[in-house]
Amino acid sequence: MAVAAKICGLTDPAAVAAAVAGGARYGGFVFYPPSPRSVSPAAAGALATGLGARVTAVGVFVDPGDDLLAEVLTHAPLGLIQLHGAETPERVAAVRARFAIPVIKAIAIAEADDLARAESYQPVADWLMFDAKPPKTMAGGLPGGNALAFDWRLLAGLDWRRPWMLSGGLKEDNLAEAVAISGARAVDVSSGVEDRPGTKSPARIGRFLDLARTL
Q: 193 in helix, strand or coil?
């Protein structure tokens, strides 16, 4: 089975079309204004229509309030909510219960001890995502999309009760190695298919997805 891929941080129709044409399983829309990939709820709704029925729209949020989640959902038909902040297991459970949409919880990883945090989210999240933790010294570091990778060996051989995605610094040049080492069956890419922060390259999206289908 091919590795499932999520193209995250979609901001324009050309990128959406490339994700669909390349066979992406998920398309991500960021609702976090500090990110160069952030879009408005209305813009996301318009873009999501281009995903069609075969690509699941994912809303990416950082410690969102219920009002923001509700506003986005009035515009965009999300199939998954991705929580990429410091949300507690209790908050993840509350979001899932109130909005009745499956939730991905992102876990920031820099060392083996960070993996222990994932255990408490397994009973309440539908998916886990393992992303690179930005160093405290990183100027302008975001919760995700920093083009940083972590040591994929930390995930090797681990067994999770929930499906999970690998994220953080992935690109065409390292995707095969990352999958081979970590054992990931689903991957998330954003900066690795961009010409510059916030501007996706349809050609890079296509090459990344072509490779993912072979793994």
A: helix
- Cα 175 off chain centre by: 15
Domain count, the chain: 1
pLDDT digit string, tens, across residues 119-148: 999 999 999 999 998 755 555 555 655 667
Residues 6+ apart with CB under 8 A from 82: 28, 58, 59, 60, 61, 103, 104, 105, 106, 129
Query: What is the pTM assigned to this prediction?
Result: 0.93
Domain of 146 in residue numbering reads as 4-214
Q: What tokens were used for 114?
A: 């960070």
CATH number at residue 46: 3.20.20.70
**Which runs of consecutive H residues, i.e. helices, occur in 27-182?**
41-48, 66-75, 89-99, 116-119, 175-182
Residue 104 parent element (H or E): strand 103-109
**Cβ-based neighbours of 159, under 8 Å, separated by 6 or more:** none
Query: What residues are labeled active site?
Result: 8, 131
Strands 199-200 and 194-196: antiparallel
Q: pLDDT tens digits, residue range 42-58? A: 999 999 999 999 999 99
Cβ neighbourhood burial of 114 (10 Å; 0-12, 13-18, 19+):
middle
Identity of the residue numbered 60: V
